[in-house]
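Annual report, structural modelling task.

Input specification for the zinc ion complex:
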Amino acid sequence: MTVRDLPPVDELTGQQQRGANCCFCGAPLRNGTAHDLGPRPVDAHGTSALWFPRCCPLCWKDPG
Ligand SMILES: [Zn+2]
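The model returned the following structure:
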């Protein structure tokens, strides 16, 4: 399963970076309905870190 391209992490809000809000549309997420997109590496000021994007059901698209 693949995921559509994620927006640049540095353009997201703190809530989106934490996975509290949808990383695409910014909608608040509930644990029962959020789709976990898996940890993504991010270059933050020369230190490698991970962020954990999640998205809402409306933004979740199955390819094909
Ligand atoms: Zn969304």
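The radius of gyration is 12 Å.
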